[in-house]
């Protein structure tokens, strides 16, 4: 009997040819309802045919297979002393074992198909249940949504099967194993198995029963599977219903009945019906329907029109045996002329990669979390998601159908630790993609993905897997899926431009590489399966990608890596929340890739990072162009693929440093997809030639009943410079009061009405600036060349490569200081600093006028030393912590950088210093604002310091210095480990290099966002005031 198998000798978990035993065949996601009314609700928990086994199970954790309890599956085995665990759950997050995060390597020694016998934890699960009385005489099945990674299953001590693919469902027919009264189900889960070699994805390595478990019942005759293709005719006007249904006859006796197919529209009106007579004499019977349906509403991500679809299985006495219900969408996916088309139109993929991740429960995902993700994606102009790198929870696909997202469904295959194309060289003789003994496992995972989700309109592309090499096994998988489904393309990044991918879908190509592809007359679409690695303070140069995507038709977008930081919520002893990453769980012997799992556009709790605003801007589908600014003529382009702009209006305003000057509204935007129209804005007012004016445009969603985007939500924006200010001569120094200058404590002290300024004779630095008794300089103002490395910097060795600049500003020596002008109106002092670390000089010309205005002209002059690029160039000082409010006229309100400022419009903003930084999970550069015209630091007593620059400057005002934010290695600190300083660190920058955004393991910021050694000149003006 099955229960007598010696599992130790069988070694199922080290045999690539053994991965699924005793299970039902994979099939479409469905539930057999007892009647039509229940099926329409699509709530299986309301059905009398459903019984949940979620909840507490008895659980025993064993650290290795030979220490697991034997014979625990027997009904007589006493588990009362065992722990209890939630199901679904990952046992490492329930206090058993250690969560492991590694990216592209295995957490065990690499020797496929073998797994260490002394380090392979086993979880033994057991639960009792009773079968409802009204299930008597029916077929009873048990469903496990996901079990990771390998598992044996028993009912009442009888072994019923085995499974490995950990991200697709497992179902067993347990009818013959049930007894009257109390039954037991037992599951033995191995953390690692040979299948783990196929699951080397960039995520937390977690274990256990991680999706729902339930029983369900069916009649002896039931619908085993169905494939409904809701296609369109070649002119895209009419629908084609192509339906294949499989009937299972467990009686193996002649059975006559009917299958009734019905389709209802959103108004619950019958759109189509057809009844087919069935005569079944065998275990499995097949039948099909193909019908032409006139003018259905079409499904796209912009117009997610769905129809209620049902299959009723009816016997000769007209009894409904079961009802299968789903929602279908009519749409056609094609590739023509090197473009991906939906319903005949080339689309643009504005996508993200998404792991299933919850900050508390790991890979146990709630419906509320899924809906939140989808709503946020839609609100940030994201229209597509790649299920990286495995099939997701079943409800996810239904929600993507309903809300409207394009989906790439991806098979649960990644062998990154064995090497992958375009990344890590590998030995083809041992790589699973090339070995015949692994072929069936590859095909099994691809087929299980396909069969479960084949009926979802949101899935427009199948993916064979991720970073798993390319060989005969993937070519066979490509041929298999193409033989089953001709309505969708298949992609595989590792295939490059080989025959087993319909789309060229690279990872992290450079700007130059994608333009090179576009120019070579390609035959296939180019859609980046991963790009713009969003680790930490990243997403630089996104606009550069999108300028090219909009230029070349074959470049159709891509999927940003990735959606959400994979941090695990934790709390300090004081109750402060933070997020753990790899290596934070105390087991030093376990491999870890640190904070490389922290690379999302959102925090783990779905709070956005600043980079997502740049994504929203680059992904917007309403765009603006100036035709004639003087006449107020602009062009509005509808870059949606399908919808008109009738549900949007445009808010416009003219603004300056003084705030909003005038505003208005453009309505009735009846612009069809792909078209543009010109509008005239009436902003008649007298422009002051000395003031800078901007025209700001916002596209606002004005539909009130949308499921994902709220009424009044901004979907697009643009800003145009309306007028540059004319240059005006300053007369600030003309005043009746006279300046005095003296030498006090080795400093020049310049005094005027209510102010005192000191410049050190020893260092040449500004050491004091007080006004009406308030001191503004707590630490001398010095040159600064260093920025705290971000994650991309660590990847391209910037901390080591540019370390020579780190202390160059501190380690200066004074070469010369001269008082070059002294009058009752003005004092000018020139200083020359030598920077011995870098063999450069830094000159400063201080000009103080008699009304307390201090101008500092800076001259950076390189020497003969060969030096790396400058991380930044500017001045740094500290002011006291009473200056808690910051006001500026420049880009904002969120942080922005030279290569990530497209979404940050110029305006007048005000924030607390506390809110000027972004608390990245692992500390790094933060808080910069570009293109600043004016900066004001204010305290609660009415004192303020106004700073302007020439040319425009960038700045940050933080409770952390660049040195405090600097880690010696990536990911060794968490934000909560930083101590806020009792001062405000102020960086006034001529420039700061770009943050980068191609990848986080080698790519530099684009050349145009880097600064090489050169002569640089810039200046700042400081003026203090105080409200009395």
Explained architecture:
- It catalyses: Hydrolysis of terminal non-reducing beta-D-galactose residues in beta-D-galactosides.
- One of its GO terms (molecular function) is beta-galactosidase activity.
- 10% of the residues lie in helices and 38% in strands.
- The chain is mostly beta strands and 1028 residues long.
- It has five domains: 217 residues, Jelly Rolls, CATH 2.60.120.260; 108 residues, Sandwich (Immunoglobulin-like); 271 residues, Glycosidases (TIM Barrel, Alpha-Beta Barrel), CATH 3.20.20; 102 residues, Immunoglobulin-like (Sandwich), CATH 2.60.40.10; 287 residues, Beta-galactosidase, Chain A, domain 5 (Distorted Sandwich), CATH 2.70.98.10.
- Strands 47, 48, 49, 50, 51, 52, 53, 54, 55, 56, 57 and 58 form a twelve-stranded antiparallel β-sheet that branches. The protein has a seven-stranded antiparallel β-sheet with strand order 1-10-9-12-6-3-4, with no helix packed on it. The protein has a seven-stranded parallel β-sheet with strand order 30-29-28-27-26-32-31.
Question: What Rg, in angstroms, do the CA atoms define?
Answer: 33 Å
Number of domains: 5
CATH architecture verdict of the largest domain: Distorted Sandwich
Mean pLDDT: 95
Structural class: mainly beta
Distance between the first and last residues' Cα: 93 Å
Total of helices: 12
Largest sheet: 12 strands, antiparallel
* pLDDT < 50 runs, ≥5 residues: none
Note the overall shape: globular
Question: In CATH, what is the class of the largest domain?
Answer: Mainly Beta
